[in-house]
Amino acid sequence: MWEITRDTGVLDENSTYAYTLWAKEFAGTSVVAEVEGKVVGFVTGFIRPSEPDTIFVWQVGVDADQRGKKLAARMLHDILDRLDSQVVRLRTTISPDNEASQKLFASVARDRGKELVREDYLQAADLGEGHEPEDLYSIV
Fold it and tell me: How far apart (Å, rounded) are the C-alpha atoms in residues 140 and 28?
């Protein structure tokens, strides 16, 4: 997961420890895709403590050789299908310039017959030098 994150050049990198811990502690709300034993994609998510009927997707990463195969959408659908009886919405943050993620979440919303709603959320000044603002997107 860390290598995919690093290789994308756009996801915020966390330590290998963080990804290992995430895979163990949040396995029920995350997914890892493998091809021939190699991790080629992942989605990290968690149930929001303030909204126990909401899954918050933190990162979606797909290996370069798997892009264009709808792997990210399939992983998001997998999580939503597994949590169908528990959650009524999915939330995530996306920077204004990340059109690929905006299209991904719009397509998942459309596939599920839901609406994608955007609202202002985190300002660039709050996120450190060189970081874009993050808008909150909700599939409802």
Answer: 21
- Dmax over CA atoms of the chain, in Å, equals 42
pLDDT for the residue numbered 9: 86
DSSP calls for 20-61: HHHHHHSGGG-EEEEETTEEEEEEEEEEETTEEEEEEEEEEE
Give the integer Cα–Cα distance in Å for 5 and 35: 17
pLDDT along the chain (140 residues), means of 10: 93 94 95 96 96 97 95 98 96 96 98 98 92 96
Strands ordered across the beta sheet of 51-62: 31-35, 38-48, 51-62, 89-94, 134-139, 116-122
32 and 39 Cβ atoms separated by less than 8 Å: yes
So what's the pLDDT on residue 90? 98
Q: Which of 45, 43, 64, 44 is nearest to 56 (CA)?
A: 45
Residue 59's nearest CA partner among 134, 119, 111 is: 134
Q: Residue 121, SS3?
A: strand
Which pLDDT belongs to residue 56?
98
